[in-house]
Amino acid sequence: AQARETGKPPYTIFADRTLLAIVAAPPTDEASFLAISGLGPAKWARFGDALLALLEAAPAPDGDTPASGA
Fold it and tell me: Can you give the pTM of this predicted structure?
């Protein structure tokens, strides 16, 4: 959705390598977000809260519950 809003291709928001890193170790806060290669303060300011909310609501790998276990 962010890419559509900015009119940019999705890969210019997050590179594939960055997306794979997010999936492998989903960030849960600003520090863990910033620890991922390709994510810095500007991306945190623009996308951080939305990404964390999306990850929080995402199904767990087994598809049963949100990743937070809630």
Answer: 0.75
